[in-house]
Amino acid sequence: MQLTIYLIRRYAAVAASEMSKSGLGIEEYAKRTQFYIVDIPEKLLNLARGGNWATFLDAGCGDGVLLNAMENSGLLRDKEVFAVDLSETRISRVREINRKYRCFVEDVCDMKSIPDSSIDLLASQMVIEHVASDEEMTSELYRVLRPGGNIYLTTVFKKSFAWYRYRNNGQWVLDPTHVREYNDDSQLIDLLRKAGFEIIASIKTGIAYPLTDLLLRRIRADQKAYSSRFLRIARRLRIPILGYYSWEILASKPSN
Description:
Elements: H1 2-14, H2 26-30, H3 42-50, E1 55-59, H4 65-73, E2 80-85, H5 88-97, E3 102-105, E4 119-125, H6 134-144, E5 145-158, E6 166-168, E7 171-173, H7 186-195, E8 198-210, H8 211-219, H9 223-226, H10 229-234, E9 238-252
Parallel strand pairs: 1-2, 1-4, 2-3, 4-5
Antiparallel strand pairs: 5-9, 6-7, 8-9
Helix pairs in contact: 1-8, 6-7
C-alpha cells in the first residue's frame, strides 16, 4: 500500500509536464529516470572475474548504476575506481556510492584527468551513441587503457525497419538524445580497430522494456521504487522493441 501511494503521488507531481523529445541539456537529461540495476552484465562479469586488474573506469557512468551493482557484489574491493560523466548532478550521485572513487566531470572524448595507459578494465554502457564524435571517443578509450587491458562497450544497434517514438535530427530514435544509432557492424567495429583495439566478441540481444518502466519513467521514480521486491518481479514482464538491439562489444588493447 505504501508503494502504491508513493507511485500515485509521484505521478501526480509530474504528469502535467511533458519532457522535451529533443534538445535536452546535459543537466536536464540527468534528471530523467535511471533504471537501478542489480545485475552486472554477464560479459563484463566474466572479464572482471577472469583477469588480474587493479583499476576500473566507468566512462559515461551516469548515476552510477553499474558502479553500485559492482560495489555491492564486492568486485571493486581494494580496486582504484574512476568515474567520468558530463553531468555534475550525476557525478554527485556517484560520489555517494563510495567517497573513495575518483570522479570527474569530463567528456569521455577528452578525459584530461585520466592518465595514459592507467586503466586495466573499462566499461562504457550506452554512451557512444550520445557523443559528438565516436571516433574521438574510441581513440580516448584506447589512450587511457593499459596494454593488455580490456573494455566492455555497449550501444544501440538498429535494423532498417526499427521504429521508436522519439525524433532527433530528422530520424526516429530510441532516445531523444541519440546522435547516432548503428545499423552496420563496420560502423563501430572499424573505428575500434582503427584506434588499435582487438575485438574479442560482438553480441547483439533484442531490446525489451519492462512494462512497469513506462510508469516509472513517467513519474521519474528514484531508487526507493526500484528496491521494491514486487517491482523487481514485475519488471520481468517486458515488451520487445522490434528491430532494436543492445550491442555488446568486448575488446582489448594489445600488449605490444
